[in-house]
Amino acid sequence: MSTTDGRASARAWWSARSRPARSWLADAGRIDQAVYEAVARTPTPGLDRGMSRLSRVADKSVLWVGTAGLLAAVGGRPGTRAAAQGLACVAVSSAVVNLAVKRVGRRQRPDREGASVPVGRHVVMPTSLSFPSGHSASAFAFATGVGYRLPAVGVPLHGLAGAVAYSRVHTGVHFPGDVVVGSMIGTVVAQLTTRATDRYLGSRGRTP
């Protein structure tokens, strides 16, 4: 068999093996679009303003920086450590999402006008790629990082993180799949970051 024939055979083999995966991804994309459009069509006048405000205050992690400041101010040394851990997790997850994963996903933002998302929900449509959601990753990274140090505080913070993630779909700037994957990435990155922090502090003979 010639080299050309071998390459053609390899391409055919790979195409046959990858066809089910491509079909599954296409189906998942259609479900994602359908859920996005269903949220857009559902009248929620009582939620619209609140979701828009929450989405905006989470821009550039302002919400999490403010929460960290509050924790440090009222929580004493444990609160300060938890706040620092949460912000460190936000920084790492943001770098992972924006510098790596988004460039791989290459997903464009939803067609908000085409889906008829009510204007009252709108926030500024970001120019960055859509997948995964950086807001969701940062939200769950912060909640996970703080919760590792202060479990009781982590519970309401995870609720707030979930609301921030949903707000990105409600306002029409992300597909549901974007926020689900972003939330998962933020959680996993925060867990790895906290373990790395503990290992580093332990190697220096300090108690985290």
UniProtKB/TrEMBL annotation:
InterPro entries in the record: PAP2/HPO, PAP2/HPO_sf
Gene3D superfamilies, alphabetized: Phosphatidic acid phosphatase type 2/haloperoxidase
Source organism, top-level taxon: Bacteria
Record keywords, A-Z: Cell membrane, Hydrolase, Membrane, Transmembrane, Transmembrane helix
Main location: membrane
UniProt-annotated location(s): Cell membrane
Membrane topology term: Multi-pass membrane protein
Domain Phosphatidic acid phosphatase type 2/haloperoxidase: 84-194
Name this protein carries in UniProt: Phosphatase PAP2 family protein
Species annotation: Nocardioides koreensis
